[in-house]
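Hi C.,

You asked whether I'd gotten around to modeling the 207-residue construct. I have! Everything is below, sequence then structure, no commentary in between.
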Amino acid sequence: MFLLATVNVSIVFTGILLYIWRLQYVFPDFALYLLAFLILTLFTHRDSFQQLGFGSQGMAASLKLLIGPTLILAGFLVMVGFVTGVFDDWTWSADKAASAFKYFSWCLFQQFGLQSFFTNRLLSIFSRPNRAAWASAAVFAIFHIPNPVLMPVTFFGGYILTRVFIAHRNLIPLAISQAVIGMTLSLVIPTAWHHGLRVGPGYYKFH
């Protein structure tokens, strides 16, 4: 399984980088082929639903671990936002609620790719779960180059989320935590720093 996992990780990792930096502009359908390949590997490795992080098992335990740090960090960011006046003219709306749900869905998809694929394969490559978690975090951060806000957040946050996934195997709490922190960051941190949370060439094209 070591060799197969290494090949799978290399192909998907390279494919995602190629898509981010070039192929999304010249061959957008490449994402569908890459996703199909990723899903195929789940069958070749015979991953169970529980190993992939689906279902209710582990949800409560994951939420218990993540709710405290997530609320503390989000609360700190919100306080910074109030002090700096970010929320002075901010109002809640149906459009913002829809955007929040879409962002949560995107976070869930990201955690599926990061945990269900990369972490599971990296656990076959590295002998220790801690090494696999750091490698998974590095993968997550590399996908967010050159964003100076998202790179450190996805590296250290990715490590924490990966350790929780390895221990309890549930994607929903991870996506909730990522969505809460991501949305709060996008509101509080100046847009000039994070460029609308964009990565790759899109980061430079943001106006």
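If it helps when you're writing up: The CA atoms of residues 49 and 55 lie 7 Å apart.

Thanks,
B.
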